[in-house]
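Quick start: what a row looks like.
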Amino acid sequence: MTSPSGGRRDALADWLRIRTEISWPRWSGGRPAAGPPVLDGVRDFLHATRGGRDPEGAVRVLTALDQSLADANQGRQLTLALMAGWQRTVLRRDPVGFRTMPAFAKGGRERYGLEPDTPGTVVCS
């Protein structure tokens, strides 16, 4: 994806710009009284797409999802340390530092740059 000036677009900058325009549902800390839990679809999707080729990985992702929901229910503030804990559950790795260079996804089509307030980074213009 390129910008109008011909350079690569920064998907993180795009996200930061548009996320305030999205009508987000409010989290009440509980599930709806009627109907199946909303996350059953997420669990079914994960098992269908990953469970057959990586059942242990699917369990780790679902465990991290459960951890994140428990943290939300307890009103914990979303921090880099909290997210790093979930990541450790998924990846089974010791903690690592936050990235210091832009990240890319979808075969390089999306770029996630660094901002002045990115943890532990100094962004030079």
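That is the whole record. The CA atoms of residues 32 and 83 lie 26 Å apart. The longest strand covers residues 103-105.
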